[in-house]
Specification:
Layout: E1 5-10, H1 16-27, E2 30-32, H2 42-47, H3 49-73, E3 78-81, H4 84-97, H5 103-118, E4 125-130, H6 133-143, H7 153-168, E5 175-179, H8 189-203, H9 215-219
Parallel strand pairs: 1-3, 1-4, 2-3, 4-5
């Protein structure tokens, strides 16, 4: 039986965790989550981003590298909620762009990241949930997490731009782009069915996998 390492990427509020856990249940895969509850830097970071950004990114780098290798070497298929690659190409870069990580720390982090990445097994598939800023804001509002209350449209738009730049050059494995504005896999089980089928097609080696329009279906 073929085993896979699948990663889920996407902006804040895109639905990565929901998709990962639902696909894991559907496919019989193990699911690995982002470390938040046991993160010793997160509360300090939200209180003072400039002081704690380097520490936070180093913690995430170590956690995700360990998680990625463990799941890649496990005897079962696994899906990981957020990829290690996003830490550098999206979030550390955003911190640097916004002035919350200085040049020295950013370059030191990127050198370490590049070395760590060179030692990790390649994934079999990256599933990216693409959603517009209004959709992201609505989903963030709906789940009502206190630490996300201050997330601005401008910040989400910056992350979306960085995601687009990263994905344009990503070549470590096939990528399945999920249209998050059209497919609400949390509220509509039939949307999850569509995604699960496309994931299987992509893992089977299909280069081009298209999603049908579901607007008419939802309108009814």
């Amino acid at each position: 039986m073929t085993k896979y390492l699948v990663l889920v990427s996407g902006n804040i509020g895109a639905g990565k965790t929901s998709l990962a856990e639902r696909l894991a249940a559907r496919m019989g895969w193990h699911v690995a989550y982002e470390s938040v509850a046991d993160n010793p830097y997160l509360s300090d970071f939200y209180a003072d981003m400039r002081t704690w950004s380097f520490h936070l990114q180093i913690f995430f780098l170590g956690h995700r590298a360990e998680q990625h290798r463990r799941q890649a070497e496990a005897p079962y298929s696994a899906i990981i909620d957020r990829s290690i690659y996003e830490d550098a190409h999206i979030f550390a870069r955003a911190l640097y762009t916004m002035g919350n990580m200085d040049e020295r720390d950013y370059q030191a982090y990127r050198r370490l990241y590049d070395f760590v990445i060179s030692t990790l097994p390649r994934p079999d598939l990256l599933i990216h949930v693409q959603a517009s800023v209004p959709t992201l804001l609505e989903r963030i509002r709906r789940r009502a997490r206190g630490m996300e209350a201050g997330i601005s449209p401008d910040y989400l738009a910056l992350l979306e731009r960085l995601y687009a730049e990263w994905l344009s050059g990503f070549n470590l494995c096939p990528v399945l782009m999920v249209p998050g504005d059209e497919l609400d896999f949390v509220r509509y089980p039939q949307h999850l069915d569509i995604i699960a089928e496309r994931v299987q097609h992509k893992l089977a080696g299909r280069e081009i996998v298209e999603f049908p329009s579901v607007e008419a279906e939802d309108a009814g």
